[in-house]
Amino acid sequence: MENIYELYTPEELEMIHNSDQYTMFYAIMGQQLIDELGIEGESALREATRRYGKDRGAYRRQRHLDANVKINMKNLFSIGSDLPADPRFHGDQLRLIPEERNTHTLRCPMAELWIEEGYRYVGRLYCEEFHPACYSSYAFGYTKVGLAKTLTQIGDEYCAFNIVLRQEDLPEELKPVCFEHFDPYYTGQTHSIPKAEAKTGFNLLTLRVYYYMVEVVKERFGQEGIDALIHGLEKAAHYAADHLKIAAEKMGRTLDVAFVDANYPLYWNPDEDPVWEQYNRHGAKELLKEAFYPILKKDLGL
Amino acid sequence: MNRIDQVATQNLQDCWSIVYKNLAKSILQVRGKDGEVVIRRANHLCGEKMGQMERENYLKEGKLANLQTYFTTPVSRCIDPRFRIQWQLFNEQEAVFDVITCPIYDYLLKTGAKDLMISFCEEYHHGCIMAYTKGVGQCTFSENFVYMGENSCRFGCYYRPSNAKAEDRPASFSGERAQEAPRPEAYIPCENPQKAFALWGEMLLTSYMQEITARYGEAAICALSEGLKAAAHETIAYLKQRTISLRKPLDEAFLAEHTFWGTQFANQFDLPEEVAKLIEINYCRTLKADLARYQ
User: Do B89 and A148 touch (CB under 8 A)?
Assistant: First the structure.
C-alpha cells in the first residue's frame, strides 16, 4: 500500500480521508446488517443501496434539467459529478458519446480499501446494486448498465463500465429531453454545475447512504433492526476516531474539531448540517446522535 | 476443432442467425430507424420466453433454477459447439465469463451485418436472465467484440438469494452462500438440436410478430414475410457451400438434417395457425423452390 502522506498535498489528503471514511462507513454498517440480520439483513442492505443509487441518479438528473443539460451518458459523466474527485482514482476512457460511456477503472480507492479491510463482499454488493440503480434512475429508468468486470469481483483487474442509453428505448416525449438532435430549438446549458467538493460532497453521500439504511431497516425490522444499526454506528464511530487520530498524527496537525470537520464527512454538529433538513425522517438523525457521536467524541477526547 | 457429428448443430445455429439477420434487416428496410425499437423489444421478449421456459423446465424436473443449472444443463436450448467461453466465476449465484468466439457474431460479421449484434446481445440475454430469475437477477454486459479494440464479450450474470423473495429461494438455491462449481463442459451435447433450434426460431418469430403488430399494426407483418423469404434464399446459398465442404449433395435429406424448419413446416409446438402459415408460405416454400433451382 502506498504512503499517501508522501504523495499527496494537504488538500488532497482531506479529500482522501473523507473518501475513505465514507467508504468504510458504508462497509461497517452494511456488514453489521448482514452479521446480525442474516440474509434478510443483506436483502435490506441491497435495497438501501438501490434507493441510495436512485436518489443520487435523480438528484443528478434534476441538477442537469435545472441547467438545461440533456439527460444522456456524455453529460452524466462529464458535467457536475456528485462524487468528489479522489486523486487516487485512475481510469481509462474508451468512449464517451451521448448514447454510450465505456470506461475502464484501473484504480478504485474504494475497492482497494474494502478488500484491504476485509469487506470485499459488501464492496461487491455495493458495485452490483448502486451503479445500475443510479445510472438507470438518472435517465428515467432507461439506461442499460453493463458492469460485468469490477475490481471488487474476484479475478478482475479493472472495472469495465458499459453504460448505454439507446434512443430507441426512449418514449417519444423523452427523446428531446435526452438528445440534442431531437430538439431543434435547444439553446444549450444555462449555467455551469460545480463538481462536488470533499467535505460537502462526501457529507451528502454518507448521510444519504446512512439514511436509506435506516429507512429500509425500520420498514422491515423491529427493535432487532435498530439494534443492528446501533451496533454498526458504534463500530463506525470507533473506526472513524482511530483513523482520524492516525491522519492528524501523519499530517502533523492538531486533532481538534476543525481537523475533524475537514477530514470526516459528517458534520461535527449534525444540527448545523443543512442536508438533514431533507433527510431527517425515521429518527435517522437522532439515532446518529445517540449511537455514533458520543463514541466518536469520547474516542477523540474532544 | 469440432467433430464431424457437430456440423449439423453448427449449421442449425447459422440457419437461426440467418433468420434473425433477415427479420431484423427487413424491419429496418421497411420502417427505417424506428424499426430498431421493434428489434430491441422483440429480442428482449424472445429472451424472456426462453428464460421463463428454462425456469419451468428445471422446476418440473425438480432441479434448482439457479445460474449453475442454467449454464450446465440447458433443456430447451442447444449450444453451438463453436462457442468458446472462458469462465471466471461460476456458481449458483454468479456466472461471469468471457465469450472468446461467438458463431452468431462471426456469421453476422462475415455477411456485413455485425451492427445487428449489439441489439441482440444487449436485449436477448438480459431478457433470458431476468425472466429466469423472476426479475431479480442481473445480466450485465461490459465488453463486446463489436467495439474497436475489444476481442471478447464479457458477461456477468448475478442471481442473489437476498434479492429473491423468501418463498422463491428454496426453488433456486441450496444455501445462502454459493460454492464455486465445476465449470460447464466446453461442449454440451443436445438431445435434439433441430427441435431446440426450431423452438428458438419460433420464439424469435412470434416475438417479432407481437412487437411489430403492437407498434405498427397487423399489416406490418409483411416485413416479416419478406424477412423470412430472404432468410430462406440466404439459407440455401449458405448450405450449398456447406454441402461442398461436406461432399454431400444439396437435397431434401440434407435440408432435413441441417435446417430446423425444412421445406415443410411441422407445427411441433402448436403455434397459432397464422404463424405456422407465415413460416410455411414464406420460408419453407421458398426453401423448396430454391432447392429445385440449385439441383
Answer: no
* Amino acid type, A99: E
Please work out, in degrees rounded to the nearest 5, the angle formed at the alpha carbon of residue B195 by the alpha carbons of B48 and B294: 115
**What residues of chain A lie within 8 A of the CB of B160, using their CB?**
42, 46, 128
Residue B54 has pLDDT above 90, yes or no: yes
**Band (A1; pLDDT cuts 50, 70, 90):** low
Which ranges constitute the DSSP H helices of B62-192? 67-72, 103-110, 115-132
What distance in Å separates residue A135's CA from the closest CA in chain B? 13
User: B170 in contact with A at a CB cutoff of 8 Å?
Assistant: no
Burial of A69-92, coded b for 16+ CB within 10 Å and e otherwise, reads bbbbbbbbeebbebbbebbbeeee
Residue-wise pLDDT tens digits, B232-263: 999 999 999 999 989 999 999 999 999 999 99
Query: Given an 8 Å threshold on Cβ–Cβ distance, is B142 in contact with A160?
Result: yes
CA distance A18 to chain B (A): 30
Look at chain B and count its residues.
Answer: 295
- Would the CB atoms of B89 and A145 count as touching at under 8 Å? no
Sign of CA dihedral A259, A265, A268, A273: positive
Alpha carbon distance A297, A292 (integer Å): 9
Q: What is the pLDDT of residues B174-188, one digit of tens each?
A: 999 999 999 998 889
Tell me if chain A has a CB within 8 Å of the CB of B86.
no
Taking Cα atoms as reference points, which of B47, B49, B28 lies closest to residue B39? Answer: B28
Other beta carbons less than 10 A from residue A222's beta carbon: 9
To the nearest whole Å, the CA of B19 is away from the closest chain A CA by 22
How buried is A42 (Cβ within 10 angstroms: 0-12 exposed, 13-18 middle, 19+ buried)? buried
Nearest to A147 among B140, B144, B176 (CB): B140
Q: What is the model's pLDDT at position A195? A: 87
CA dist B138 and A12 (Å) reads 36
> Comparing C-alpha atoms, which of A49, A128, A111 is closest to residue B93?
A128
- Residue A258 has which C-alpha cell? 476543525
Instruction: Tell if the CB–CB gap between A168 and B154 is shorter than 8 Å.
Output: no
> Does residue B138 belong to the interface with chain A, where contact is any CB pair within 8 Å?
yes
> What percent of chain A lies above the pLDDT cut of 90?
97
Cβ–Cβ contact B161 with A under 8 A: yes
C-alpha distance from residue B198 to each of B50, B248, B258 (Å)? 13, 23, 11
Q: What is the dihedral of CA A107, A109, A115, A117, to 10 degrees?
A: 160
Task: Dump pLDDT digits (tens) for A20-45.
Answer: 999 999 999 999 999 999 999 999 99
Calculate Rg over the CA atoms of chain A.
Answer: 20
ipTM here: 0.94
Q: Is A92 on the interface with B (CB under 8 A)?
A: no
Q: What SS3 class is residue A94?
A: strand
What is the per-residue pLDDT across B193-211, written as a single tens digit (0 to 9) for each?
A: 999 999 999 999 999 999 9
- Read off the DSSP letter of residue B218: G
One-letter amino acid of B79: I
Q: Is the pLDDT of residue A163 over 90?
A: yes
- Backbone torsions φ then ψ of A101, nearest 5 degrees: -135, 115
Among candidates B152, B151, B169, B149, which has minimal Cα distance to B160?
Answer: B169
